[in-house]
């Protein structure tokens, strides 16, 4: 009978449930009176008979349910669809978890216990509804006085109830030892955090509602609130788990909410840390948008679709522009660019870890770095022109070469060109003065001068690579003597440019920032690298110019032994391509690298190499073989790389 | 939200007026083909109703499907929720009508565990884009998503049966009695 009643009550709604339960309990009471005739015997009879008790329980449940509904109506008015949906979902979880809790406390199972759990469930429902209602404040257009009164009275009622039950549970546990009251106490303590959240949110929302302007820091406050509440909950769950395991057994029923709480807390914590970092990045590193930038995107922030002013808009590293406030609220959730999803924490270095030794304007804005570099290169070109133009011999050609030097040399041809004379010179090392009376010493000096200029240009922020320092110190007569024979590739450069940090004893102890710094991922390291590359480029330009100058000096001095050189090339079976590579510096001068033309360019290079050949008429067969091998090797490496 | 200002009515209550969010204007001024959408009431811009026509050349062709969009209070930072209010049978629509596509999921929350983050919600998305994605979802269901496993299975294994059910639904939305 009880089961059918329960099933019917569960299915039927509203009045039918009341009617059925009333009728049934009426029947039971009437039946008892008919049999026992008097009040007390009837009560005893009903209490003794299980089916009658079941009916009475059902009746009580229905009565409580409708009482709850009535109080709900008093506090909330008509529930919205979304609210009741959420309520049913949460209540379902709460009921299943309560059933799990029954398994642990089956000894305590009594009507009082069931009643307490029912009460807890109802109070929980009110807490959830209060939470929903407070959240709804943000969206509803009209907030009446009734709403405020309801929320206030509800929050006070819930707080009082929670504190009373926590206190009750505490005293019972202290007086009678651990029992099911432990669970109640814990649950109500959790509910207190819920009420606290709702109250704080209510205050924040109220302030927001009655302020006419958009309250930006509200979101930050909400995030902090969530963090602290999450922290409280997490600590509570851990305590509860420890106590339960020590006194009873593993509280299975608390695992799901515990998992959710801990996961939420972790997420909030991450959000808090990452968003703080992202917002800090935004405030310190990213430039304000300029008026030109804004015009390109028609002045509209694509997040809120309102107009932007230059002062209130920020430009991300990916060149997307948004309102600062829009970005701030987005960064509290996700630290990516809203448009292209660039992770703004990953590529962008955090605050400069080292103290700046360089002028600030260089490091201030990443976008200005590149133009600044090109500018300095151009500057340098002028300096090169002036310094070489001062030279007594071949000043005409010097200035001509300078004018024609392209600013953007490709890297590879240069290596080749640097090394070809290098090897020649290595072979000729024994007698450098045989260089046909050309003032090589002067050239070398000018090179050193240039390097000094370069260093000055870069504010001496970091040392030139060691080999360049060597050039200076040794004061060699041959400018390319100490250039490393291997092609300069990027990793090598990077390795030299930035001093490798000392290995810290304990990597685990380092903070994220320190690790990032260790990785040379910082802004400082990046700036250093770019500067160093710039220096290399400058040195290469210088080298190219000197080579050209050297060539033209040969032409002027009337040495022309191209036949000999061509002979060598033929005998060594160097490919056509190789020859083109050989001739490249002259091509570069016309700033238009063309691998297929070798008309006029042959002249310059061949004369230079050829003159070397002529200078050593007594070259032994062994040296000749070595040279051929080297030529071949370089032609191969040149081919490979092209 | 930015779309609001406060005013006080005769009884002293604060009334907040929500401006029509610009996506609304966009949609009403030049609606994309096959979409009608707008707030249900003038006072609440956070609940929208949309009518979506089934894309041509698919089994949903000709149908007009009503749907509801619920915007969160922090829109556009969080995605709206969308659910069809008519009966639907589709691999990416739950049996209660909720739509499960990646554009409606915030990055980091992936109910089905297969979506890449670059199709997720971001504040630059608009209602129009959502509705267009829904239309393309109707045309090309993603049978890896398990929002409606029965529909996904049928879509993969028994396309004719799926088409029949879809046709029935289309007829139902148009109010045409089904043949069977």
Automatic annotation (TrEMBL), chain A:
Per the UniProt entry, the Enzyme Commission number(s) are 2.3.2.27
User: Topology in the membrane?
Assistant: Multi-pass membrane protein
Which reaction does this enzyme catalyse, per its entry? S-ubiquitinyl-[E2 ubiquitin-conjugating enzyme]-L-cysteine + [acceptor protein]-L-lysine = [E2 ubiquitin-conjugating enzyme]-L-cysteine + N(6)-ubiquitinyl-[acceptor protein]-L-lysine
User: Which residue ranges run through the membrane?
Assistant: 56-76, 113-130, 142-165, 186-204, 224-255
Annotated SMART domains: RING (SM00184)
Which family does the record claim for this protein? Belongs to the HRD1 family.
Protein name (record):
RING-type E3 ubiquitin transferase
From TrEMBL, chain B:
Enumerate the GO terms in the molecular function aspect.
ATP binding; ubiquitin conjugating enzyme activity
SUPFAM superfamilies in the record: UBC-like
Taxonomy, superkingdom: Eukaryota
Say which enzyme class the record assigns.
transferase
EC number(s) recorded for this UniProt protein: 2.3.2.23
CDD domains with a match to the protein in the record = UBCc_UBE2G2
Xref: SMART domains: UBCc (SM00212)
ATP-binding listed as a keyword: yes
Q: Which residues form the UBC core domain?
A: 15-175
Give UniProt keywords alphabetically. ATP-binding, Nucleotide-binding, Transferase, Ubl conjugation pathway
What catalytic activity is recorded?
S-ubiquitinyl-[E1 ubiquitin-activating enzyme]-L-cysteine + [E2 ubiquitin-conjugating enzyme]-L-cysteine = [E1 ubiquitin-activating enzyme]-L-cysteine + S-ubiquitinyl-[E2 ubiquitin-conjugating enzyme]-L-cysteine
Keyword Nucleotide-binding (UniProt):
yes
A Gene Ontology biological process noted in the UniProt record is: ERAD pathway
Subunit info here reads:
Interacts with AUP1 (via C-terminus); the interaction recruits UBE2G2 to lipid droplets. Interacts with ubiquitin ligases AMFR/gp78 and RNF139/TRC8; recruitment to lipid droplets by AUP1 facilitates interaction of UBE2G2 with AMFR and RNF139, leading to sterol-induced ubiquitination of 3-hydroxy-3-methylglutaryl coenzyme A reductase and its subsequent proteasomal degradation.
**Family that this chain belongs to:** Belongs to the ubiquitin-conjugating enzyme family.
Tell me, what does this protein do in biology?
Accepts ubiquitin from the E1 complex and catalyzes its covalent attachment to other proteins. In vitro catalyzes 'Lys-48'-linked polyubiquitination. Involved in endoplasmic reticulum-associated degradation (ERAD). Required for sterol-induced ubiquitination of 3-hydroxy-3-methylglutaryl coenzyme A reductase and its subsequent proteasomal degradation.
| Protein name per the record | Ubiquitin-conjugating enzyme E2 G2
Say which species the protein is native to.
Answer: Sipha flava
Encoding gene (name): LOC112693391
């Amino acid at each position: 009978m009880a089961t059918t009643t329960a099933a019917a009550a569960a299915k039927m709604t509203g009045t039918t449930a009341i009617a059925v339960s009333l009728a049934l309990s009426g029947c039971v009471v009437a039946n008892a009176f008919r049999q026992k005739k008097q009040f007390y015997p009837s009560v005893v009879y009903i209490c003794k008979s299980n089916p009658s008790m079941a009916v009475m329980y059902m009746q009580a449940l229905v009565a409580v349910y409708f009482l709850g509904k009535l109080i709900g109506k008093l506090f909330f008015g008509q529930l919205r669809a979304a609210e009741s949906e959420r309520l049913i979902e949460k209540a379902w979880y709460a009921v299943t978890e309560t059933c799990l809790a029954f398994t642990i406390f089956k000894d305590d199972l009594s009507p009082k216990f069931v009643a307490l759990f029912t009460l807890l469930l109802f109070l929980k429902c009110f807490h959830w509804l209060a939470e929903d209602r407070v959240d709804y404040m943000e969206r509803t257009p009209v907030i009446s006085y009734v709403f405020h009164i309801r929320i206030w009275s509800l929050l006070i009622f819930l707080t009082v109830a929670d504190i009373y039950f926590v206190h009750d549970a505490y005293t019972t546990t202290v007086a009678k030892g651990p029992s099911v009251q432990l669970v109640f106490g814990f649950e109500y303590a959790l509910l207190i955090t819920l009420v606290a959240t709702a109250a704080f949110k209510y205050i924040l929302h109220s302030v927001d509602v009655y302020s006419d302007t958009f309250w930006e820091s509200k979101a930050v406050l909400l995030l902090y609130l969530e963090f602290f509440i999450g922290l409280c909950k997490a600590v509570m769950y851990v305590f509860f788990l420890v106590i339960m395991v020590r006194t009873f057994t593993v509280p299975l029923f608390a695992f799901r909410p515990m998992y959710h709480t801990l996961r939420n807390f972790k997420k909030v914590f991450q959000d808090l840390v990452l968003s703080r970092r992202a917002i800090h990045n935004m405030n310190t590193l990213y430039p304000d948008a300029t008026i030109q930038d804004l015009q390109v995107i028609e002045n509209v922030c694509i997040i809120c679709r309102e107009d932007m002013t230059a002062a209130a808009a920020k430009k991300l590293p990916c060149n997307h522009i948004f309102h600062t406030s829009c970005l701030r609220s987005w960064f509290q959730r996700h630290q990516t660019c809203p448009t292209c999803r660039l992770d703004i924490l990953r590529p962008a270095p955090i605050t400069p870890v080292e103290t700046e030794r360089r002028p600030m304007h260089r490091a201030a804005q990443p976008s200005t770095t590149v133009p600044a570099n090109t500018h300095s290169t151009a500057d340098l070109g002028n300096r090169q022109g002036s310094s070489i133009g001062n030279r007594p011999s071949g000043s005409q050609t010097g200035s001509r070469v300078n004018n024609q030097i392209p600013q953007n040399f490709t890297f590879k041809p240069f290596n080749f060109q640097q090394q070809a004379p290098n090897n020649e010179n290595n072979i000729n090392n024994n007698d450098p003065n045989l260089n046909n009376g050309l003032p090589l010493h002067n050239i070398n000096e000018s090179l050193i001068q240039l390097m000094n200029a370069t260093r000055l240009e870069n504010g001496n922020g970091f040392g030139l690579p060691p080999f360049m320092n060597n050039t200076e110190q040794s004061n060699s007569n041959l400018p390319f003597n100490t250039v490393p024979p291997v092609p300069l590739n990027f990793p090598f450069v990077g390795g030299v440019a930035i001093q490798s940090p000392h290995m810290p004893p304990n990597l685990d102890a380092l903070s994220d920032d320190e690790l990032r710094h260790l990785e040379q991922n910082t802004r400082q390291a990046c700036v250093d690298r770019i500067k160093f590359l710039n220096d290399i480029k400058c040195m290469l330009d210088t080298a190219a110019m000197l080579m050209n100058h050297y060539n033209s000096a040969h032409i002027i001095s009337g040495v022309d032994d191209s036949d000999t050189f061509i002979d060598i090339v033929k005998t060594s079976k160097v490919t056509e391509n190789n020859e083109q590579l050989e001739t490249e510096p002259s091509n570069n001068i016309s700033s238009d690298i063309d691998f297929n033309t070798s008309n006029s360019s042959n002249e310059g290079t061949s004369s230079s190499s050829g003159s070397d050949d002529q200078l050593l008429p007594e070259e032994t067969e062994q040296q000749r073989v070595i040279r051929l091998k080297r030529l071949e090797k370089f032609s191969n490496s040149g081919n490979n790389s092209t | 939200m930015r779309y609001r200002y406060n005013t006080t009515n005769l009884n002293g209550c604060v009334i907040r007026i929500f401006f029509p969010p610009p996506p609304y204007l966009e949609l009403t001024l030049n609606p994309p083909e096959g979409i009608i959408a707008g707030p249900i009431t003038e006072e609440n811009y956070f609940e929208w109703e949309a009518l979506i026509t089934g894309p041509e050349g698919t089994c949903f062709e000709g149908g007009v499907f009503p749907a509801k969009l619920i915007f969160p209070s922090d829109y556009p930072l969080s995605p709206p929720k969308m659910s069809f209010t008519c009966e639907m049978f589709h691999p990416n629509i739950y049996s209660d009508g909720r739509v499960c596509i990646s554009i409606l999921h915030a990055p980091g929350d992936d109910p089905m565990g297969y979506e890449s983050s670059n199709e997720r919600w971001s504040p630059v998305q608009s209602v129009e884009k959502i509705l267009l994605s829904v239309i393309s979802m109707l045309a090309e269901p993603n049978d890896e998503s398990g929002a409606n496993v029965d529909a996904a299975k049928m879509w993969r294994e028994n396309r004719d049966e799926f088409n029949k059910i879809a046709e029935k639904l289309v007829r139902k939305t148009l109010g045409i009695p089904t043949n069977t």
